[in-house]
Amino acid sequence: MNSAIQYAKENQEKYVNELIEYLRIPSISTLESHKNDMLTCANFVADKLKTAGMTKVKLYKTKGNPLVYGEWMKAKGKPTILIYGHYDVQPVDPIELWDNNPFEPVIKDGKIFARGANDNKGQNFAHIKSVEAFFNTERELPVNVKFIIEGEEEVGSENLSTFLAKNHDLLACDAILISDTSLYAPNIPTLNYGLRGLTYMEVTLTGPNRDLHSGSFGGSVANPINELAKIIAQLQDKNGKVTIPNFYKNVKPITKKEKENFESLKFSDKKYAKELDVKELQGEKGYSTLERLWTRPTLDCNGIFGGFTEKGAKTVLPSKATAKISMRLVPGQDPKEIAKEFTKFVKSITPKSCKVEITELHGGKPVLIDLNNKYLEAASKATSKAFGKKTVYTREGGSIPIVLEFMENLQAPAILMGLGLDSDNIHSPNEHFHLNNFERGIYSSIYFLDLVKDLK
Amino acid sequence: MNSAIQYAKENQEKYVNELIEYLRIPSISTLESHKNDMLTCANFVADKLKTAGMTKVKLYKTKGNPLVYGEWMKAKGKPTILIYGHYDVQPVDPIELWDNNPFEPVIKDGKIFARGANDNKGQNFAHIKSVEAFFNTERELPVNVKFIIEGEEEVGSENLSTFLAKNHDLLACDAILISDTSLYAPNIPTLNYGLRGLTYMEVTLTGPNRDLHSGSFGGSVANPINELAKIIAQLQDKNGKVTIPNFYKNVKPITKKEKENFESLKFSDKKYAKELDVKELQGEKGYSTLERLWTRPTLDCNGIFGGFTEKGAKTVLPSKATAKISMRLVPGQDPKEIAKEFTKFVKSITPKSCKVEITELHGGKPVLIDLNNKYLEAASKATSKAFGKKTVYTREGGSIPIVLEFMENLQAPAILMGLGLDSDNIHSPNEHFHLNNFERGIYSSIYFLDLVKDLK
User: Fold this and answer.
1) CATH node for B2-195+366-451
2) Pairwise CA distance, residues A110 & A119, whole Å
3) Cβ of residue A215 closer than 8 Å to a chain B Cβ
4) Confidence of residue A340 (pLDDT cuts 50, 70, 90)
5) Which of A295, A349, B111, B353 could staple B432 via S-S, CB 3.0–4.6 A?
6) The pLDDT value given to residue B365
7) Coil, strand or helix: which one is A448?
8) Choosing among A212, A231, A281, A302, which should be mutated to test the B contact, i.e. which has the most B CBs within 10 A?
9) Stretch(es) of chain A classified as CATH 3.30.70.360
């Protein structure tokens, strides 16, 4: 194991050069025009898995982009670790805000700037290089390893979900290792054990059957924008609590231990508010910011539109207004149930003077990983060793829908070993990845594979 | 006079063809991109005034779009009638709801469909053609006539207002004739004696300094869409009353006589609701629909936007949200005062977690015309003759801000001789104008100019 670490250290420059090649492929899954790039990228990953020493490397066709699979199963009696990642990336717009071509990686101040540098190429590549370091020094891995790298995470992982349901045996494992989250802070090794779920709705109110002159008609009929605003206002009370009946029914309070853990992270509201340039933070009363972000459900409008939205004034009383409203969910809440309750409640508070149309756009279940599991313990030791600091446990506000499906289908814990930083601009212009996190990610992976070898 | 009527009748087809040309010019005053079309349209109107027989036809430059002026002042000792109209039109969006290109007029079932057909090109063109009919038959007008046709009515008439303040002599008159309102019902000649005023505001809330991922940040900071919705919801109470302090302070109740007049008009809520396809009407409690429309102030959102407004789902917690909010005002309310009260109140209910920016986009004073004036009497006779029915007196919900300024500056009564119908879709897709109203408008104008000749 030490020789693998040594090897990884000596080959860091070569690894970074290969990462640059990986980042040059514009594998934007949401744009049809990049269809060929997706295949190029899948083949690139497959080649790298082969070079690293994996066997049975194969592209599995799906209705969309191929899944890249590879395994090494010769560690008899040892645990099997499934490593997941994705080779697809987000679109690059607004392109004018990038300082470099997003697919011509640039290294500056120890960071590599490119679309996908953090999310997720840099993070999954660390694990491929960890395996390579083992094979190039010890000719074998301490445990069995399977890789599944998909090309559709940024568009909902639907085809992986279908594949997963049909290929339990192929993907069977003792733990799922995923690096697609963030460090709590620079240089702080971090394991994430909770992700919020999501219910995403769209509400359209229709008042009169056509846009009207607000002078000639104002005061006689309901205005769908005003009425939609009243509906939105009624979805939360003065204390920031969601008012939808049964919304909190199955939400359990966090344990004293978790509360203490959060407090130990010494989150600074002041710094956070300053960074976002707001005078004060806001959210559900009675909870700290970290509690609100990681353990409490929310309701946010993600978009709203209706009437005249150009510059200037138009005196229209519009026919329609639409809001996109999503709720982040926590363990105990079911996305489908919440969608139903939302629909029922919104219908009940819509005035008779308007028609309402409510659509569920998408959803995902929340995830909570049992803190008492030995793979997580090993991950804690591994990352602590790699970073030279005590590993912290965090939860996160966002969702990675496939994580829960892995856990439920494969009956194995997920280890969310994030290597990015929240300030790395993922999904935004100038996405980057700190090369020291790439390096420490490789070490974390090597230590982890070694530490879990006797857990079975 | 009879020969002028005869001439107008015979030339109806030619007049409609000229109106089509007028309607082809996309003179949208609120869009910078149509700047050249405004000038083209002003020149078109000037040409038509010259052809009609007017003298001293001239474009008066303003800071915005030019004013078109023309006069004929050879009826010594006779009254002077100032005819006002506007050549600018509203934007056309949502364009997809139009059955034809809004600037390629189509005639169907006796109606002409185009942006501006009713508001206001069709209506002001009727007066130009009335004058033309006189000159082409009697070589003179029975009274002195001045035309002032502006290009900024839809954006607040600010430059006409400035011009008016400086050009009392040029515009001096005994009565101001305006066709920019509606018939009470098809075939019912109508004179309007009251217009609501307007205060039009734009409110932009800013939460965090950039768009955030709603998963990673949701629950920690104020969402400007949710907060804007709460602000809008607080602007009206459960009874539909506006909650802004001092909003109703100077509003006087209507007289018993007016109330009786309204009741005599036998307005049908049921028919109105059916025509707009709403299950029930809605507005300030305690007032009939006509009272709400004509004599009570309102508050309507004319537009709202923020966050993700495309198809599908994007989990964004936006930085900004904007609403366009206008209030219709009635006699006693001052637009500037109301703008101040609105601003103060919205600021007072904006949470500390957001920044708010409030802009007054435009405003106009309400108008009430004294029913006891001889020009109005003459207009009643003229329209009654043209339509072959008894003329009714109404008020109206919309504003024509310049009307009051004309009255105050020129010390003359305004005659609001509406030719449109409320069902003509002004400011909406498929705006149209009934050609028989265009025709009867020309006759009304001819009769009126003749009937007022001895009023001085």
Assistant:
1) 3.40.630.10
2) 17
3) yes
4) very high
5) B111
6) 87
7) helix
8) A302
9) 197-251+297-363
